[in-house]
Design goal:
The complex is a heterodimer. By secondary structure, chain A is of the alpha+beta class. Chain A has six helices and five strands, in the order ββαβββααααα. Chain A has two domains: 76 residues, Beta-grasp domain (Ubiquitin-like (UB roll), Roll), CATH 3.10.20; 70 residues, [2Fe-2S]-binding domain (DNA polymerase, domain 1). Chain B folds into three domains: 47 residues, Uridine Diphospho-n-acetylenolpyruvylglucosamine Reductase, domain 2; 108 residues, Uridine Diphospho-n-acetylenolpyruvylglucosamine Reductase, domain 3, CATH 3.30.465.10; 105 residues, Enolase-like, domain 1. Chain B has eleven helices and 14 strands. Classes of the chains: A alpha+beta, B alpha+beta.
Chain lengths: 158, 277
């Protein structure tokens, strides 16, 4: 079966990729476009580290055939990271010791971005509900929750 | 064998044409939350796959006291576009936010237990499934008859699930998912109950259970014990005991069959107590 060309908007830029049938967005991001902030975790939909925003909605890039999102807007961690310095959520993760090995961080930061876009001042329970699909095995959730709350304060005062 | 083709039909008609053309060799998926993990792991190695995300089946509408939900409506859309408490509760207890954005109402009917925590709510609400075929048109099957065994359904090889018809509940409902964590976790047992009482007596009872059978099941004998009786502590205790006796729990990494059966009694009792309050 011949490959197909899929066009979509990635982090504000139009991109075109040539893919074999059923190639996932995760594979396109990491292996075709060499954007490796989006991690490959369980590839089962169980860990959340491959979370990206599709039209602002958090989705798991490991379960998403890239052809399904042709013409749509995708934002990855690269897309919110400024050229100089860090995004306020990234800075809050850094300052609150919410990154240990860092493997869950890209997914955690993107889902918290999606939450704060909708709800700038979430309760702790709302943060917990939002990150329920994102697994962290070493940092510990407490510092991640603190970072999310701190990020909300930073974004509101910015 | 690598995947040879991936089809993305733009309508139900196109999807049925592709299904007729390619037959059972075509793996059908919607949100990808069941099929893609198996494909990623090499457990499922289909040659041809059809994705239904763009088939125009993600609509929700009300029609004469019935909620008509398109098969590829996502769980997030269902929660946002309906106000039935049972459905809200069921969606809230499924996966994480990302899975709810991807997983679909129709797809949940094919989720093997202990998954299927929306299907069990649909069973308690007495939903019917509309199946569509290119040659034979549409037919309607009560959800209770749609499930035929572990990972088997009444769906014919040339059919797709088009929509679900959910009657708006007339009685009181309750939904409890008991699991090892609060969120994003498989069920030990899920209980979805709908009870209508008139003049102090139960006149309609639907008690659906998940993760304690080969598919979401109705506890028919327990329902019979409720019918005609007042919904008091004695009736509830009897029905809970009967539900535990008639369910068919299994052992997996989450819980043993022994524990699931005992928790079925506990959580059927609690679900009915909430309704009786």
């Amino acid at each position: 079966m011949a490959s197909r060309i899929v066009a979509f908007n990635l982090n504000g830029r139009d991109v075109e990729v040539m893919v074999k049938p059923l190639t996932t967005l995760q594979t396109v991001l990491r292996e075709h476009l060499h954007l490796t902030a989006t991690k490959s975790g369980c590839r089962q939909g169980g860990c959340g580290t491959c979370t990206v925003l599709v039209n602002g909605e958090p989705m798991l890039s490991c379960l998403l055939p890239v052809e399904d999102i042709a013409g749509q807007q995708v934002v990855t961690l690269e897309g919110i990271t400024p050229v100089e310095g860090l995004h306020p959520i990234q800075q809050a993760f850094f300052d609150n010791y919410a990154i240990q090995c860092g493997y869950c961080s890209p997914g955690m930061i993107m889902i918290i971005k999606a939450l704060l876009d909708r709800n700038p001042n979430p309760t702790r329970q709302e943060v917990m509900d939002a990150i329920a699909g994102n697994v962290c095995r070493c940092t510990g959730y407490e510092s991640i929750l603190r970072a999310a709350e701190d990020a909300a304060r930073r974004l509101q005062s910015a | 064998m690598a995947i040879q083709d991936y089809f993305l039909p733009k309508s139900l008609e196109q999807a049925l044409d592709l299904l007729t053309e390619h037959g059972p060799a075509l793996l059908v998926m919607a949100g990808g939350t069941i099929a893609m993990p198996l494909i990623n792991d090499g457990i499922s190695m289909p040659e041809k796959v059809m994705g239904l995300r763009h088939a125009g089946l993600n609509t929700v509408r009300r029609q004469n006291g019935t909620l008509v939900v398109g098969a590829t409506t996502t769980l997030t859309q269902l929660a946002q576009q309906t106000d039935i408490p049972m459905l809200q509760e069921a969606v809230r207890h499924i996966g994480g936010w990302q899975i709810r954005n991807m997983g679909t109402v129709g797809g949940n009917l094919f989720a093997p237990p202990p998954a299927g925590d929306l299907a069990v709510a649909l069973l308690a609400l007495d939903a019917t499934v509309v199946l569509a075929s290119k040659q034979r048109g549409r037919r309607t099957v009560p959800l209770a008859e749609f499930f035929t065994g572990f990972m088997t359904t009444a769906l014919a090889p040339d059919e797709l699930v088009a929509e679900l018809h959910i009657p708006l509940p007339r009685g009181k409902t309750s939904y409890i998912k008991y699991a090892r964590k609060h969120a994003n976790t498989p069920a030990i047992v899920t209980v979805a109950a709908h009870v209508l009482t008139e003049a102090g007596k139960v006149v309609d009872a639907r008690l659906a259970l998940n993760a304690v059978g080969p598919h979401p099941i109705r506890a028919r004998r327990a329902e019979q014990l409720l019918l005609g009786a007042p919904l008091n502590a004695e009736t509830i205790a009897g029905a809970a005991k009967e539900a535990a006796a008639e369910c068919e729990p299994f052992t997996d990494a989450i819980a043993t069959d022994w524990y699931r059966r005992r928790m079925t009694e506990v959580f059927v009792r609690r679900a009915l107590e909430r309704i009786a309050e």
